[in-house]
Design brief:
The protein is mainly α and 520 residues long. The protein has a single domain (5-18, 49-400), classed as Sodium/glucose cotransporter. It is 74% helix and 0% strand. It is built from 23 helices and no strands. It has helices at residues 5-26, 36-41, 48-59, 62-74, 81-104, 109-116, 119-153, 157-172, 176-206, 211-221, 244-247, 249-259, 262-269, 274-288, 291-305, 315-320, 327-362, 369-395, 401-409, 413-425, 431-451, 457-476, 499-519. The radius of gyration is 22 Å and the shape is globular. The relative contact order is 0.18. The model has no long low-confidence stretch (mean pLDDT 85).
C-alpha cells in the first residue's frame, strides 16, 4: 500500500469535513422545506465566486486529472487546447448565451428547447443527455477515479468506485446544487493546491531539485511534447489535427460543453442576475489558463521519469507515488475532491433533467414541490448505481479515456450546437429543422466514421456541424414559422457587459495569443 497512516487520516478528515460542511450549508430554516428552485438552482442566489469555482470543480474531474495527464504523457502540450480554448469559449457564452437563458427563467437546457421549438425536441434531447451523463460521464469519472485508488492502494476497482459514489451521494443528495456549488470552493482550492504540489515535485525530480530547471530540461529534451499545433506525420494528429484544432471542430465541442450543457451551465442558471453569472464565468475563464500547469505538465514529466508505462492513464497515479507521506494524502484528497465534485454535479444535473423535463410533464403535473425534490434524489441515486454496473464493460479495455470521451460525444455535439445557434439567433428556425439537425448529427457522424476513417474526429465534428446547420436551415422552410411566443426576441435582451468583464476578456484573449505564438 502506498498510502500511510498520516495520508489516510488526512483523507478521512477531508471526507468527514466535506459531508459536515455540505450538511450545514443544506439546512433550511425551521419549518421550511426545499422547493425545486432551492434543490436544482440553489435558490437562484449563487454569488460569482461560487459559480466560477463550481464550474471548474465540475469540469476538472478524473477524466481531466488522470485522462488529460495521460494524454499529456502520450501527446504533450497540444492536449492543453481543450483547457485554453475553453477560456475563450466561456467569455463568448457569458456575453451572448447567458443573457438569453436567464431572461427566459429556465431550469434546464431541454426546457429552453421546448420553449423555442416544441416538446418533441425537448424529449429527444432530455433522453440523450440522460444517457450521455449516465453511461459516458458518470462511468468515466468513477472508472478513472477508481484507477487512481487502485494504483495507490491496491483496492479493487469496484470497491474504489463504490467508495467514490458513496462519498458523492453523502454530500450532494440532500442539499442539491447549493451543497455542490458552495462546497466546490473548498474542492477547487484543494485541487489547485494539490496540483501545484505534484507539478513542483515532478519537475524538481526531472531538474535534480530545481522545478524551473526541470521544465527547461523537458522542453529541451522532448521538444515534440511542446508543440501546440501537430504536424500530419505526428501519430496523434488523428486526435488533434493541427491547425484544425483552433479553426474547426474544437470550438463546436467547447460551445456544446460550456454553453449548451446542463451539467455545466446549471451553475450560471443559479445566479441572482446576469452580471453575477457573467463574473462567475470570467472567473472560471481565468482559472482555465492555469489548469494545464497542474494537469498536463505532470503527464509530460511522467514521460521523462517513467517512459515505459503500459497505459498513458497510469501517468498521474504513478507520479503521486513519488510524493512524501502526508503530502501524498493532501494530493490524494485533492484528486478525490475533483472526482466527487464532478460526481455530485453530474448527479444533480441528471436529477434536474429527469424531474423537470420528463417526470413532471409526463407523470407529475400535480406533484408537490416536496415530491419533485424526492424524485430528484431517487433519480440521482439510481443513475450512480447504473453507472457502477456499466463502468467495467464500457471502459475496462480503454487506453486514453479522455480522447475516447471526446470522440464519442463528438457524434452528438454538432447537432446540439447547431440547434442552439439556430434557436438563439435565427428567428425562422423551426421544430422540424431542429430535429433534423439533432438526428442528422449522429447519422452523419457515424457514416463519416466508416466512410472516411482517415478523417480526424475533430475535423469530422466541424464538417458535420456545418451540414447540420444547413439541414436545420433548409428543413425549417418546410414548416410554418413558430409563433411570437416561441421566438427569442434579441431586442429585449441586453448583451452589454461591464468594464471589469471587458478588461478580463481582453486579458484572457491576449494571454491565449501569447501562449499559442510561443508554442506554435
Amino acid at each position: 500500500m502506498s498510502l500511510e497512516s498520516i495520508d489516510l487520516i488526512i483523507i478521512a478528515g477531508y471526507a468527514f469535513g466535506l459531508i459536515a460542511l455540505a450538511t450545514v450549508i443544506s439546512r433550511e430554516k425551521t419549518g421550511r422545506k426545499k422547493d425545486t428552485a432551492d434543490y436544482f438552482l440553489a435558490g437562484k442566489a449563487l454569488p460569482w465566486w461560487a459559480i466560477g469555482a463550481s464550474l471548474i470543480a465540475a469540469n476538472i474531474s478524473a477524466e481531466q486529472v488522470i485522462g488529460m495527464a495521460g494524454s499529456g504523457y502520450a501527446v504533450g502540450l497540444a492536449i492543453a487546447s481543450y483547457e485554453w480554448l475553453a477560456a475563450a469559449t466561456l467569455i463568448v457564452v457569458a456575453k451572448f448565451f447567458l443573457p438569453i437563458f436567464l431572461k427566459r427563467g429556465i431550469y434546464t437546457m431541454p426546457q429552453f428547447l421546448e420553449q423555442r421549438f416544441g416538446a418533441s425536441v425537448k424529449y429527444v434531447m432530455s433522453v440523450f443527455w440522460l444517457a450521455l451523463y449516465t453511461f459516458v460521464n458518470l462511468t468515466t469519472i468513477l472508472w478513472l477515479g477508481a484507477t487512481a485508488i487502485n494504483t495507490l492502494t491496491g483496492v479493487d476497482m469496484m470497491t474504489g468506485m463504490i467508495l467514490l459514489a458513496m462519498l458523492a451521494a453523502a454530500y450532494s443528495l440532500y442539499g442539491g446544487l447549493k451543497a455542490v456549488a458552495m462546497t466546490d470552493i473548498i474542492q477547487v482550492a484543494l485541487l489547485i493546491m494539490g496540483g501545484l504540489i505534484i507539478t513542483n515535485l515532478v519537475l524538481a525530480k526531472v531538474g535534480d531539485g530545481d522545478a524551473l530547471a526541470g521544465f527547461a530540461k523537458l522542453s529541451a529534451e522532448f521538444p515534440e511534447k511542446f508543440q501546440m499545433i501537430l504536424s500530419r506525420d505526428n501519430p496523434e494528429y488523428r486526435n488533434l489535427p493541427g491547425i484544425g484544432v483552433i479553426l474547426g471542430g474544437m470550438w463546436v465541442m467547447h460551445f456544446s460543453y460550456w454553453g449548451c450543457n446542463q451539467y455545466i451551465i446549471q451553475r450560471a442558471l443559479g445566479a441572482k442576475d446576469v452580471a453575477e453569472a457573467q463574473k462567475g464565468l470570467m472567473f472560471a475563464a481565468i482559472l482555465k489558463l492555469f489548469m494545464p500547469l497542474i494537469i498536463v505538465v505532470p503527464g509530460i514529466a511522467a514521460f521523462a521519469i517513467e517512459p515505459n508505462l503500459s497505459k498513458p492513464d497510469q501517468a498521474y497515479p504513478e507520479m503521486m507515488k513519488l510524493v512524501d507521506p502526508g503530502w501524498r494524502g493532501v494530493i490524494f484528497a485533492a484528486l478525490i475532491a475533483a472526482i466527487v465534485s464532478s460526481l455530485g454535479s453530474m448527479m444533480n444535473s441528471i436529477s434536474t433533467i429527469f424531474t423537470m423535463d420528463l417526470y413532471r410533464p409526463l407523470f407529475g403535473r400535480d406533484a408537490s414541490e416536496r415530491q419533485l425534490v424526492r424524485v430528484g434524489r431517487i433519480t440521482s441515486f439510481t443513475a450512480v448505481i447504473i453507472a457502477l454496473v456499466a463502468a467495467r464493460p464500457l471502459l475496462a479495455g480503454a487506453d486514453q479515456v479522455f480522447q475516447i470521451i471526446q470522440e464519442y460525444t463528438g457524434f452528438f455535439t454538432p447537432g446540439i450546437v447547431a440547434i442552439f445557434v439556430l434557436g438563439l439567433f435565427w428567428r425562422r428556425s423551426t421544430e422540424i429543422g431542429a430535429l433534423a439537425a439533432v438526428i442528422g448529427s449522429f447519422a452523419l457522424s457515424l457514416a463519416l466514421k466508416f466512410l472516411a476513417p482517415q478523417m480526424p474526429f475533430m475535423d469530422r465534428v466541424g464538417v458535420v456541424f456545418l451540414i447540420c446547420v444547413a439541414l436545420g436551415v433548409g428543413l425549417s422552410y418546410l414548416q410554418r414559422p413558430a409563433g411570437e411566443a416561441k421566438l427569442v426576441r434579441l431586442g429585449d435582451v441586453s448583451f452589454r457587459t461591464d468594464r471589469a468583464f471587458n478588461i478580463g476578456a481582453v486579458a484572457v484573449c491576449a494571454a491565449l495569443v501569447a501562449i499559442y505564438a510561443f508554442y506554435w
